[in-house]
Amino acid sequence: MTEGESEQDAIIRGSPEACFEAITDYESYPEWQTSIREAEVLARDRKGRGKEVRFVLDVLVRRVEYVLAYEYPRAWALRWTLLRGEMKRSDGSYRFEDLGDGTTRAVFQVAVDAGVWVPGPLLRKFNDVLMKGSVAALKRRVESLGNGPGS
């Protein structure tokens, strides 16, 4: 990984399908992703999944608006690229691996370039906090919906 790229993972009590459904329910993000204020699906693919999604992100000092283009390369996986917005780059992916015991390993990778210089240690800290928060929120969302073992 290069500067600005990060990876986080988590074990979630739930199926890969439940994780995938939660992460692709973009319009529900403001309910459970604390930094996302708005999410709107602008275009859908033939299967009804979000193809272009507009987000408004609260980054402490201001709000940032951007549109991501999504692809679904295989079952239980998605990736995105920045289509337009206030950032220079935002590419990432999620994949969900069935661990065979009613749990799923969620792997989140992202590369962000805000378009302004940010010191490396601060950028790494920001990415780690943002990513850990995102993965933790997904874990809480899936597990609260009763998609885990014994549900």
For the sheet with most strands, the description reads: 7 strands, antiparallel
What overall form do the CA principal axes indicate? Answer: globular
Provide the β-strand percentage band. 35-45%
Number of strands: 7
Number of domains: 1
Mean pLDDT across every amino acid position? 85
Structural class by secondary-structure content:
alpha+beta
The CATH superfamily bears the name START domain
Q: State the end-to-end CA separation.
A: 38 Å
- Global Rg: 15 Å
| Name of the level-1 CATH class | Alpha Beta
Approximate helicity band: 10-25%
Salient structural properties:
alpha+beta, Alpha-D-Glucose-1,6-Bisphosphate, Chain A, domain 4, seven-stranded antiparallel beta sheet, 44% strand, globular
List the helices and strands and how they pair.
Layout: E1 5-13, H1 16-23, H2 29-32, E2 36-44, E3 50-58, E4 63-71, E5 77-85, E6 89-98, E7 103-113, H3 120-144
Antiparallel strand pairs: 1-7, 2-3, 3-4, 4-5, 5-6, 6-7
Q: Would you write up a description of this structure?
A:
This protein has 151 residues and is α+β, with helices and mostly antiparallel strands. The chain has a single domain, classed as START domain (Alpha-D-Glucose-1,6-Bisphosphate, Chain A, domain 4), CATH 3.30.530. The chain is built from 3 helices and 7 strands. Strands 1-7-6-5-4-3-2 form a 7-stranded antiparallel beta sheet. Helix 1 crosses helix 3. The radius of gyration is 15 Å and the shape is globular. The mean pLDDT is 85.
